Amino acid sequence: MKRASFLTLMLLAALGTSQAARAVEYTLPANGSRLVGQNQTYTVQEGDNSLQTIARRFDTAAMILLEANNTVAPVPQPGTQMLIPLQLLLPDVPQEGIVVNLAELRLYYFPPDGNTVQVYPLGIGQLGLETPEMTTRVGQKIPNPTWTPTPGIRQRSLEKGITLPPVVPAGPNNPLGRFALRLAYGNGEYLIHGTNAQNSVGLRVSSGCMRMFTDDIKALFAQVRVGTPVRVINQPVKFSVEPNGMRYMEVHRPMTQNEVQNPQTIAYVLPEGYAQFAADKGTDKMMADKAMHRRMGVPVAVSAGATPAVSGVTPVQSALNGAPSSATETQVTQ
């Protein structure tokens, strides 16, 4: 998933209005289905001065909007019709605790009641400072964290002419925001936290930690307990055979390892079981190949004999303002 520097800068520069983000919450299907939600269409309004503005309206990521609407401009014109990708396939992992899929720039939280899943957009590690895949747990909950920049962050800041203080106190200027969840991985250097740079959420720009919108981390922090399981995975290709026999694929652009790679054309490391799924007579191979080529980031029906269209698209009213339903001493890679 290449995050081209020009596009990233445009997205960061075109700051949106400060709208309260809120999780998109789905009821888990009782029949074991992994397909949840419904896509929506939205007409860009006056005042929607960036993709990030629209992304925050639906509590999603600007890069996810770009995948679904690959011809839209970083500052879309009023009247532009956009697909809002709110339908998805749940990751193919146990549905418990926190699941982060780096390829989606999404965090899934499965509350202990087992009936729902909350989905939040994330900012993750930039090229060369990638957020690692891991299986771990929440090791510490930290309200009002302070930030101790690592030597690497200090050096990179100095190269930009910025001298960081030894410790940044809690408050509105703290890069960790108001709430942080320290992961019990490595030396505790990886956090899920808020940020004072709201428009960096949904981009690949951090030093390895995972950033959330202010309201999102507040909501997650209030629910999560120390010891909650955490899985950080990288699944750009998701596929499912649903209980009714329908077959779906959701394909995201893969993570790139350098600036010259094109996320639209680089090869995938395919997940276990995909070759059998694609070769099965129930899968339309041409439709599956199209889904792999387009990399749209939304579920696409690929059943043999199915209509090759994105499923579950509903128009959104233009007035809609939302979607449906201390790190004190340890150095962290913010």
Summarize the structure in words.
It is built from 7 helices and 19 strands. 17% of the residues lie in helices and 24% in strands. It has helices at 5-13, 51-57, 62-68, 151-159, 214-223, 274-279, 285-294; strands at 24-27, 35-36, 39-43, 81-84, 88-89, 97-101, 106-110, 116-121, 124-125, 134-143, 179-183, 191-193, 204-206, 210-211, 229-233, 237-241, 247-251, 299-301, 313-315. With 334 residues, it is an alpha+beta fold.
Brief account:
With 334 residues, the protein is an alpha+beta fold.
Mean pLDDT: 84
Strand order in space, largest sheet: 1-8-7-6-15-10-11-12-14
Which ranges are low-confidence, i.e. pLDDT below 50, for 5 or more consecutive residues? 1-21, 316-332
Number of strands: 19
What is the global morphology?
A: globular
Percent helix, as a range, is 10-25%
Termini separation comes to 20 Å
Beta-strand portion reads 15-25%
SSE run = HEEEHHEEEEEEEHEEEEHEEEHHEE
Radius of gyration: 19 Å
- Distinct helical segment count: 7
Largest sheet: 9 strands, mixed
Structural class: alpha+beta
